[in-house]
Amino acid sequence: xxxxxxxxxxxxxxxxxxxxxxxxxxxxxxxxxxxxxxxxxxxxxxxxxxxxxxxxxxxxxxxxxxxxxxxxxxxxxxxxxxxxxxxxxxxxxxxxxxxxxxxxxxxxxxxxxxxxxxxxxxxxxxxxxxxxxxxxxxxxxxxxxxxxxxxxxxxxxxxxxxxxxxxxxxxxxxxxxxxxxxxxxxxxxxxxxxxxxxxxxxxxxxxxxxxxxxxxxxxxxxxxxxxxxxxxxxxxxxxxxxxxxxxxxxxxxxxxxxxxxxxxxxxxxxxxxxxxxxxxxxxx
Length: 284
Ligand SMILES: *[C@@H]1O[C@H](CO)[C@@H](O)[C@H](O)[C@H]1NC(C)=O
Ligand SMILES: *[C@@H]1O[C@H](CO)[C@@H](O)[C@H](O)[C@H]1NC(C)=O
Prior knowledge:
Blueprint: H1 2-18, H2 28-39, H3 44-48, E1 58-64, H4 66-69, E2 89-95, H5 116-122, H6 132-147, H7 156-169, H8 172-178, E3 189-190, H9 191-202, E4 207-212, E5 218-228, H10 242-247, E6 261-262, E7 268-269
Antiparallel strand pairs: 1-2, 1-5, 3-7, 4-5, 4-6
The chain binds 2-acetamido-2-deoxy-beta-D-glucopyranose (2 copies).
One 2-acetamido-2-deoxy-beta-D-glucopyranose (NAG) binds next to loops.
């Protein structure tokens, strides 16, 4: 309970900063316009789906650790870490179980031109064959379009702005550094110890994800932060366990996801340094 109170107070500054996200307050007429617009683009199966408009309740904000991201890919996928990258980067902001997403809202480079420098720094593609813009566009088309039923995220520009603000707010590197937890090959950290540092900021439902490397070490490569509709930390609506959360996570081509898993709660993992020279083997 005490933890929840702390969580809430840590998030208020974010809400003030964002200040533009509200629960949808659509008039019936506006909703109808939107439905008409969408129906023009829907196939028959979707039309029979009676799920209400903007039905999702929770978002997952997912950050990846470049130090171990390359090990989460299969061997054939070429991975690179741009030399300027030295902290957690954005993977995506995903509405959970969003039913009404259309493929009707294309995104162009000019949509996010003013954010390009920031996005390049905080949301780079780490796949050698995928330009960063293609990564952003894929995330927009898979997830952003679904998020866009909420005022404040209803354009590529606004959606990516929100993501960048969230990235600034959740400075995992700094939070851990403050607790003496820094990337190293020398020793692993206990999962419980890290969660304890993060929980007051990310909520107690945040998920820490690992991959197992070829020496059978657990490597921390990703964290998922549940958020409510209004971007406060935590979300009580998901209910059905982790399988559903994974549905939101979207997959890019060529990624082997079978080995990605929650880090064993009673175990420990390596928080390995970022090494652009040896992205797959930062610890040799
Ligand atoms: C945000 O949404 C949650 C869940 O719907 C609600 O409990 C909370 O009061 C809201 N917070 C603000 C500041 O609007
Ligand atoms: C994906 O990873 C699993 C587990 O490490 C492995 O057994 C499987 O062969 C891999 N698949 C591909 C396509 O690389």
